[in-house]
Amino acid sequence: MSSISRCVLAAVFPCILLAGCKTEEVVGPETTDAEIRLANISGWYLRHVRQYGRTPRSDAEFFAYVRNIPGSERVIPVEQLDSYYISPRDKQQWVIRYSVPVEQAGESYAVPPGTVLMHESVGLAGKKLIVRGNGFTELVNDATLAELTR
């Protein structure tokens, strides 16, 4: 086998392997975008918790709070916020949990790290993207989500 053939095979073989896997249905560019959105939204949520010592009580309260965060700290232009609350994976509004426990953390407040703050409504390929109180995101099935949020 010539060195050119080996180079072509080395470049093509991983693509052939990946083509047989259906991971793009669950993990793809939409998942990365969704994780970035969740990181920002959960950051705003936790900022509210630290500032007021409680979670927001509703979408209306939370969305108004985020609109009032200075633009340089919010990162997302205010005119893009409404679309930002939609998951790019399932095209549904994020489910934001407003009745999670809040703990005193020194002179501030925090949500327990493992607590699910938000998740996708429908998900994709049997998995929903969630974000926890520590900011970590993960894909879980409905049974796992039900267990984590009871």
Description:
With 150 residues, the protein is of the alpha+beta class. The protein has one domain (27-148). The protein has helices at residues 3-19, 29-52, 59-67, 71-74, 81-84, 142-148, and strands at 95-96, 103-105, 108-110, 116-119, 128-132, 137-140. The strands form two sheets. A four-stranded antiparallel sheet has the order 1-4-5-6. Strands 2-3 form a two-stranded antiparallel ribbon. Strand 5 (128-132) and strand 6 form a beta hairpin.
Task: Describe the protein's topology.
Elements: H1 3-19, H2 29-52, H3 59-67, H4 71-74, H5 81-84, E1 95-96, E2 103-105, E3 108-110, E4 116-119, E5 128-132, E6 137-140, H6 142-148
Antiparallel strand pairs: 1-4, 2-3, 4-5, 5-6
Features:
single chain, 150 residues, alpha+beta, 4-stranded antiparallel β-sheet, two-stranded antiparallel ribbon, 6 helices, 6 strands, globular, disordered N terminus
List unreliable stretches of 5+ residues. Answer: 1-26
Oligomer: single chain
Count, helices: 6
Radius of gyration: 19 Å
Amount of beta strand: 5-15%
Task: Write down the overall mean pLDDT.
Answer: 84
Main sheet properties: 4 strands, antiparallel
Distance between the terminal alpha carbons, to the nearest Å?
59 Å
Q: What would you call the structural class?
A: alpha+beta
Provide the number of structural domains.
Answer: 1
The coarse overall form would be globular
Going across the biggest sheet, name each strand in turn: 1-4-5-6
Order of helices and strands: HHHHHEEEEEEH
Number of strands: 6
